[in-house]
Design a protein that fits this description.
Bound molecules: flavin-adenine dinucleotide, 1,4-dihydronicotinamide adenine dinucleotide
CATH topology of the largest domain: FAD/NAD(P)-binding domain
Distance between the termini: 64 Å
Strand order of the largest sheet: 5-2-1-9-19
Radius of gyration: 25 Å
Mean pLDDT: 95
Largest sheet: 5 strands, parallel
Number of helices: 14
CATH architecture of the largest domain: 3-Layer(bba) Sandwich
Number of domains: 2
Number of strands: 22
Strand content: 15-25%
Length: 475
């Protein structure tokens, strides 16, 4: 008998069924292969050993791409996971859970053709003469051996950067940074502590105001995105669960320059400042923090007056400075390493003044901004350099070309489901901002998640916080 219904509708139904089956098949395949890594080749003493320092954007891009058929690879880092930093501000308020943006380094190393040794430790010294590095176990639990040296043929330094404090007393002691997992945890705990203490029986009104004053120092993208996430938390959740306190909670962003987000186009800067004004986030521009104490900061304001600002939570996001290891290596190579701002490299990412040492990402000082985009492109580039080096050694005619950066645009979340984007377009630039850009921001970050597992977890967290709201329990 002839089938009922419209042929187009039937075709659509079939297409959907195929899509669902395909989706389930793909998900099962990805899950199976990621959970069941294959057998790996052992270390080969005849191959050269590449040691990579770090498990951040630069190092992990390098690790993913390096061909372990050609090299023995050793990775050293105090943290045994990769962290997707662009979504870290969302973790400070529980829009996303921390583990969703972490990827264990073993999930990457176990999928290489040759076994990659990973040592969870900090590199404390690099000796370019003997071609060795010193490493220290910095975890709380230690075995009998806690310090050792390991040799390298090639060394890749991808240790990122430290938080810039300008040597100001009190910053490390009283402020929270926003760079690592533990920073986000600390902010989340301290924020909830401030709110609960403000609600303590018979709390004085001055102390309520101080405890509920959240001050962010630094109007770069880290400071702006944190203030935006905090605003959303206040509007979506705190107003419901702490109705007696929420209207007293105040967010202030302090920036030394005349405007926030200097790397974005002027129209997006204005748009951000307007959005912050609507969201009642006070932006103090031309205001420089001069002193940090446990309950207040002193700033030099736009009128050149010293003003005290009491705070409950202080988030410090004033950019980067070199890590102690980078400084130590630069001091060893002081004739060629002449910049205090980071390791100097040539266009092939070779460290100036050293043989067989390369550096990528935030630990370097180059013409590029210290971003994940730059670090990951440099990691990919360097892996292809090593590929070419191996081919050249085999006698093939390969050329090593300098690193070229391809800018994919800048994105930032500014709160109330709005984001801003400066995107390259036909040799120019397009600046967009608003709710549609927020949708783009979310899809861009989903597509750049490290693994299928991360994509799944982050989307689950977004759904969870939309349906149930954010969790207001203390970490
Ligand atoms: P990192 O990713 O910082 O990695 C450094 C690694 O080195 C870490 O694994 C660390 O544990 C390890 N390490 C440190 N010391 C040692 C040692 N002594 N020995 C061995 N290992 C060591 N960039 C963008 O492009 N887009 C964004 O949206 C964006 N958002 C951001 C949001 C936040 C909150 C932050 C903080 C940064 C953001 N960035 C963004 C910048 C981006 O995260 C950095 O540029 C990027 O992480 C740099 O990569 P990296 O590999 O050089 O360093
Ligand atoms: P930043 O260097 O971009 O901004 C720091 C800000 O702090 C500057 O505007 C500076 O003027 C201000 N500042 C410094 N000292 C001050 C003081 N004493 N008082 C008041 N203000 C002071 O640092 P940020 O935001 O931590 O970013 C670091 C890097 O990571 C940048 O390259 C940035 O592009 C990248 N990043 C990118 C993001 C994105 O693309 N969405 C998000 C977060 C970071």
């Amino acid at each position: 008998p002839p089938k009922k219904g419209w042929p187009r509708l039937r075709a659509l139904k079939r297409l959907v069924q195929l899509g669902v089956i395909g989706g389930i098949g793909y998900t099962s395949y990805v899950t199976y292969t990621s959970r069941h890594p294959m057998e790996q080749l052992p270390f080969d003493p005849k191959k050269r050993t590449v040691v990579i320092l770090g498990t951040g954007w630069g190092a992990i891009s390098f690790l993913r791409k390096i061909n372990t058929d050609d090299y023995n690879v050793v990775a050293v880092s105090p943290r045994n996971y990769f962290l997707f930093t662009p979504l870290l501000p969302s973790c400070t308020v529980g829009t996303i859970e921390l583990r969703s943006i972490m990827e264990p380094v073993r999930f990457i190393t176990r999928h290489k053709s040759r076994n990659v040794k990973f040592y969870e430790s900090e590199c404390t010294d690099i000796d370019p003469e003997s071609k060795t590095i010193s490493i220290t176990d910095v975890s709380d639990v230690k075995g009998a051996v806690t310090n050792t040296t390991i040799p390298y043929d090639y060394l890749v330094v991808a240790i990122g950067a430290d938080n810039q404090t300008f040597g100001m007393a009190g910053v490390r002691e009283f402020a929270c940074f926003l760079k690592e997992i533990w920073d986000a945890q600390k902010i989340r705990t301290r924020l909830m502590d401030c709110i609960e203490s403000a609600g303590f029986a018979s709390q004085t009104p001055e102390e309520v105001d101080r405890l509920l004053h959240m001050v962010v120092v630094g109007g770069g993208p880290t400071g702006v995105e944190y203030a935006a996430e905090l605003h959303d938390f206040l509007k979506d959740d705190l107003e419901l669960w702490y109705p007696e306190l929420a209207d007293k909670l105040k967010i202030t962003l302090v920036e030394a320059l005349p405007n926030v987000l200097p790397m974005f186009s002027s129209q997006l800067i204005q748009y951000t400042e307007r959005t912050f004004k609507q969201n009642k986030i006070e932006v103090l521009t031309k205001t420089m923090v001069k002193e940090v104490a446990d309950k207040e900061i002193k700033v030099l304001d736009a009128d050149k007056n010293i003003v005290s600002i009491p705070y409950g939570l202080l988030v410090w996001a004033t950019g980067n400075c070199p890590r102690p290891l980078a400084r130590k290596m630069m001091a060893r190579l002081k004739h060629t390493q002449t910049s205090p701002r980071g390791i100097l490299v040539d266009n092939y990412m070779r460290v100036a003044g050293a043989n067989d040492i390369y550096a990528i990402g935030d630990c370097t000082f180059t013409k590029y901004a210290p971003t994940a985009q730059v670090a990951s492109q440099q990691g990919n580039y360097l892996a292809s350099v090593f590929d070419n080096l191996a081919r050249i050694e085999e006698g093939q005619d390969k050329k090593i070309t300098p690193f070229e950066y391809s800018h994919q645009g800048s994105l930032a979340y500014i709160g109330s489901d709005k984001a801003i984007a400066d995107l390259p377009f036909l040799n120019g630039n397009v600046s967009v901002g608003g709710v549609a850009t927020f949708v783009f921001w979310r899809s861009a970050y989903i597509s750049t998640q490290f693994s299928f597992r991360n994509k799944f977890l982050v989307m689950g967290d977004w759904l969870k916080s939309t349906v149930f709201g954010r969790d207001v329990s203390r970490e």
